[in-house]
Amino acid sequence: MGGAAGHLQNAWEATDLTFGDIRELIHLSVSNKLELYEKLDGQNLMLTWKNDCVYMGRTGKHLRDYGALGIAVVDVLGFFSPSTPDTVRKAYHIATMNFQILFSENKDYFDEIFQEGKVWLNAEILYEDTENIIHYGLNQIRIHNLISVDENGKTIEIIETPQKLLKLSKELKTLSFDILPTNKVSIKLFNQRLTVEAKLHAILTKIQISKGLNDEDTLSDYMILSTEEYIFKTMPNQKEFWYLIEPFGKRWALGDKSINIAKLLNAATPEVDEWFRLEDKKGDIKKDVLFPLVTFFLQLAVVILKNVNGLVVKDYDKSVELIKEKANESIDYISDTSNNIPAKDIKRLLSSLEQLKLIGKSTSIVPTEGVVFNFKGHLLKLTGAFSPLIQLIGYTKYKK
Description:
Distance between the termini: 26 Å
Structural class: alpha+beta
Shape: globular
């Protein structure tokens, strides 16, 4: 989702999940026992209705005080920075105007629904002119849900999209976008399901064995152990300053910054101090130590997405070919040394290329960003090939 709707957790970011939980997730996934919704590659749209006007929210501050600082529909075009592509401005302008028309035609009903900014609509704009990675071939607004908020703009409750809202939008023939709910998808039964499931379990077991972990241990345990291992192998004078390994392991693995870095390094030598501060500033360690775990979840996602029914995309095969073309153009650009790509960017891009290779290269490409589902109290996403592709295609799209 992103934007004012907030960050949607990747499965590996739910660090309280145990490896036993992940084994359960594998089984539920391949057995079509999860309630899955498609994760869309569009522009997130948050809006409310108050004082006979649609207000858009792009950050949390726009939701505070029930939309007091929200962006009125007449100001949407002028809100975005000069660097924002005209197509993106246009998409948001048309979308908000569509809702202005819809809500104005049914004012009393939508006054009751949105309660003067206490409830917000969370949706995704799919607009052909603002295509990202996925080619949908459609102009649609897909409504995820409604969200009631407190005066600080914090979520109180997630509300299912009212059927009457969808019915009214369908009846109004003057709208530029089709307004539909986020679509539910399902996993079709596929050959060798048990074999595929066994392979996923084997990959997970290998990850556990590498750190001496069992099914009761958590993803958090894996991250901390992996980070501590990296620190021990890489830091200078590890025998003398061994006591720094644990706090920095938690700091870098889990983002735990409760202990001041200056206090941690108070007695360190200049060499050790410089090493820790440099690593802390770079922030690359977590990405490096998470690589095997993230790749596993991408492999799981590929299995799901290659066997999913009900995707939004209009022409599946055409979309796959267009994504492959974008990927190949990006790989060619990255491979061309004359483009002088900075070393720090090359490292990240090569990591994405390696990840794409490990999950099946071009055969892993499916015309969707991924799926969203509830599991063990978490709202999670799995994204498959989209994850490395957004790094590769996104980089070259804005660097060329």
